[in-house]
Amino acid sequence: MDNIFKRFTCLLLAFLMVMEVFSPVAALAASLIDEPE
Question: Which superkingdom is the protein from (predicted)?
């Protein structure tokens, strides 16, 4: 049970890191798409 919890925590941290990296990229893409030009 402890091993599963440890693995889940590792996956969660990895997911958060990926989201933190892609967040500004997604925001930039959204701002470019939202422009009427």
Answer: Bacteria
